[in-house]
Write a structure and sequence with these properties.
By secondary structure, the protein is mostly helical. The chain is 97% helix and 0% strand.
C-alpha cells in the first residue's frame, strides 16, 4: 500500500469510528428523551387523573347540595302538613 492508500484507510477508519460514536451517543440521548417523554406523560396522566378526581368531587358536592335542597323542600312541605293538622286538631278541640 502506498502513502495515499494508508491515509485514505486511516481517514476512513477514523470516519467510521466517529460515525459509530455518534450513533452510540445519539442512542443514549434518544433513550433519555424517551424516558423524559414517558415521565412527562406520567405527570400529564396524573394531572388528568387529579383533574378528573377534582371534577368528580365537585360533581358529588353539587349532587349532594341538590339532594339537600330537595330534602329541605320536602321538610318544609311536611312542616306545612303538620301545621295544617295541628290547626285542624285545635279547631276540633274547641
Amino acid at each position: 500500500m502506498g502513502v495515499y492508500s494508508m491515509t485514505t484507510l486511516n481517514a476512513r477508519t477514523s470516519l467510521e469510528l466517529e460515525q459509530e460514536r455518534t450513533v452510540i451517543t445519539f442512542g443514549a440521548l434518544w433513550r433519555l428523551v424517551l424516558e423524559l417523554e414517558a415521565w412527562a406523560g406520567h405527570v400529564d396522566t396524573r394531572m388528568a387523573d387529579l383533574s378528573r378526581a377534582g371534577y368528580d368531587d365537585h360533581r358529588m358536592i353539587h349532587d349532594m347540595l341538590v339532594q339537600q335542597a330537595a330534602l329541605q323542600c320536602e321538610l318544609q312541605e311536611m312542616r306545612g302538613h303538620v301545621t295544617t293538622l295541628e290547626q285542624e286538631r285545635d279547631r276540633r278541640e274547641r
